[in-house]
Amino acid sequence: MSRKAAFVYHDAMSRHILRADHPLRAVRLKYTYELLDAYHAFEDENSALVEPRPATEKEITSVHDAEYVEAVRSFSRGERKYDPVRFSFGAGGDNPIYEGMYEAALLSTGASIVAAELMDGNRVNVAFNISGGLHHAAAANASGFCVFNDPAIAIRQLLDKGLRVVYVDIDAHHGDGVQNAFYDNDRVLTISLHESGMFLFPGTGFVEEIGAGPGTGFSVNVPLYPYTDDDTYLWAFRETVPPLIAAFKPDVLVTQLGIDSYHSDPLAHLQISSRGFGDAVRELAGMGLPWLATGGGGYDLGAVARCWTLAYGIMLERDWPDEIPAECREKYGWERLLDSEVPAVVPENVRQEARNFAEKSVESVKQLIFPTHRAG
């Protein structure tokens, strides 16, 4: 039986501009939609293009403090009733205030809630919100380009329905905001594979961060060395993610599919190719769970469009032709969906150091986490 997939999107998601020189460019969402449309993805009988809706204030405050939500609304209107610095906003930093910020954040968050609602009654097997995955936002402040934490809010909706949730985050940056939201909760298993906080924002996500109270053993971190390649990344993924999910026995899979792990991404240092990314997504698809997928980081815009297009094809169990359709090839200059190879720029001694680092991370996870779940 074919998998039914929903793609939650509206062009309004791609129109806001954080700042002229800001690396997070919402237009990447439009590029992804256009590439999928060029592949006729939304004409597939098992594919549904679903419109989002803005999240309600009640939904937002299931994770965020009411005063913070009001401050975001006020900033978005151009008001200055609050000190922006108090909530980690600043004109020249990661989190600028921009016109329509509140509305854009509500729509992105609402899209993840719509994806969660599509899990009801098995209407679809997987729903993908590429505008989501804003995993750094904290309860009372913005962080790392993220205003509202849509994965945490969507997970909260699923918990309210009595479901057990596993959250898997493959962004290059640690999923700190989602981890913190459920750090003492044993109904959510969070797993994050990321470039180590020793080298990259947000400076967290070490193996020793394993949860607290009832949630001890339910926060899992697999930090990786800069320049980790496909082989080492996928080895670390397969050694940790499938056995932990099998042991936890969740009702729903929620993922953050950031592609700032890509080898040419300007903000991180991992060396993952589109093929490696696709293989990780296939591992997730193979779990056979109801699946809410979100986007996340990704600052090489062509890589974002190609990799998320690849991911939606995997969700649909469709293999897109490797040659990019003519309209997108001519408009954007993209030639192939898949990389022929990752440029061989990493010295062998660095590759080996990355492998050794990953092996230590995996071994520590097996020592600290696996006994809680009787995994492995």
Summarize the structure.
The protein has one domain: Histone deacetylase domain (Arginase, Chain A), CATH 3.40.800.
Features:
376 residues; alpha/beta; Arginase, Chain A
The count of helical stretches stands at 12
Biggest sheet overview: 8 strands, parallel
Low-confidence stretches: none
Radius of gyration: 19 Å
What is the name of the CATH topology?
A: Arginase, Chain A
Task: Give helix and strand order, one letter per element, not per position.
Answer: EHEHHHEHEHEEHEHEHHHH
Please estimate the helix content: 25-40%
Beta-strand content estimate: 5-15%
What's the CATH C level?
Answer: Alpha Beta
How does this structure look, described?
The protein is 37% helix and 11% strand. The chain has an eight-stranded parallel β-sheet with strand order 2-1-3-8-7-4-5-6, with helices on both faces. The chain is of the alpha/beta class. Helix 1 packs across helix 9, helix 7 packs parallel to helix 11 and helix 8 runs parallel beside helix 9. The protein has a single domain, classed as Arginase, Chain A (3-Layer(aba) Sandwich). The protein is built from twelve helices and eight strands. The relative contact order is 0.14. The model has no long low-confidence stretch (mean pLDDT 96).
Q: How is this fold's topology laid out?
A:
Elements: E1 5-8, H1 27-38, E2 47-50, H2 57-60, H3 66-76, H4 101-117, E3 126-129, H5 150-160, E4 165-169, H6 176-181, E5 188-195, E6 219-224, H7 230-248, E7 252-256, H8 274-285, E8 291-294, H9 301-316, H10 326-332, H11 348-368, H12 370-373
Parallel strand pairs: 1-2, 1-3, 3-8, 4-5, 4-7, 5-6, 7-8
Helix pairs in contact: 1-9, 4-5, 7-8, 7-11, 8-9
